[in-house]
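We were asked to recover a plausible sequence for a given structure. The inputs and outputs are reproduced exactly as logged, with field labels preserved.

PROBLEM: sequence recovery
POSITIONS: 252
GIVEN STRUCTURE:
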């Protein structure tokens, strides 16, 4: 059986009286693309924020590679190998694409390099930044300022910044949001490429993309996980169709 890399147990996060994430127990297997889908307000972004350390749980726990990570700050979680992208991009508009990625690599390595940094350490950061740009098809934009990029390119740059840090697991919150048809195809190709070498937790509204990309799909409704399974199982689940896909007769 495939090894579980990330796990939540009875994870709960409330905002006042609302349980945005309610008693969520999920296993993410190493190397899989695991999509979390559900209607607006289902708690998907809150779940990602708990996994990345941007929010803390009220109860329950999160285990990554066998150790508890709940309660750790985002930078510690990132350094353990969990990268994330945000629904709103996180890039520094005035900096070049290269510099944005370089900073992504630097943030991940800084604490390990100590005060006196050998020149080779900087060379390593340059290489990581350029490799990340290349993987995302952004090397030709290396010296462009980030603010001058198209919306789709900014999303790809953000993914490159995340990759420059060398993560093993990626948390992606709606990477296709707001993209045109061409940009969507580009991003789907990139996600396929990334899935060859990373475990991915994908939140996405584009159901065609989800059913095309995901190995496993979990459906969240009102903070709870309704069902988890293969795309085939989810497509044919009566409970899922009734609660979410909005079609009780035909597979979506
Ligand atoms: N910071 C917050 N303060 C109060 N309520 C929030 C906050 N973040 C999210 N919520 C609420 O929690 C629920 C889940 O939100 P969210 O996780 O963003 O859902 P999704 O990403 O599935 O659309 C929603 O009802 C939302 O309004
Ligand atoms: Mg969301």
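RECOVERED SEQUENCE:
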């Amino acid at each position: 059986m495939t090894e579980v890399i990330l796990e939540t147990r009875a994870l709960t996060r409330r905002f006042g009286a609302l349980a945005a994430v309610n008693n969520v127990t999920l296993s993410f297997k190493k190397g899989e693309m695991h999509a979390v889908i559900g209607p607006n307000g289902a708690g998907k972004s809150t779940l990602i924020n708990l996994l990345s350390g941007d929010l803390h749980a009220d109860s329950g726990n999160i285990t990554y590679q066998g150790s508890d990570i709940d309660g750790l700050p985002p930078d510690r979680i990132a350094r353990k190998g969990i990268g994330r992208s945000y629904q709103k991009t996180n890039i520094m508009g005035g900096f070049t694409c290269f510099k944005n990625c370089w900073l992504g690599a630097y943030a991940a390595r800084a604490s390990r390099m100590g005060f006196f940094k050998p020149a080779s350490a900087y060379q390593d950061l340059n290489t990581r930044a350029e490799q990340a740009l290349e993987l995302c098809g952004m090397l030709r934009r290396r010296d462009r300022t980030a603010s001058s990029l198209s919306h789709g390119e900014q999303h790809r740059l953000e993914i490159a910044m995340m990759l420059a840090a060398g993560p093993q697991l990626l948390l992606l919150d709606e990477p296709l949001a707001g993209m045109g048809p061409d940009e969507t195809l580009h991003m789907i190709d990139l996600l396929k490429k990334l899935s060859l070498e990373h475990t991915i937790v994908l939140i996405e509204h584009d159901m065609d993309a989800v059913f095309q990309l995901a190995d496993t799909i979990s459906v969240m409704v009102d903070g709870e996980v309704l069902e988890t399974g293969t795309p085939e199982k989810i497509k044919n689940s009566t409970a899922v169709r009734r609660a979410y896909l909005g079609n009780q007769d035909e597979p979506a």
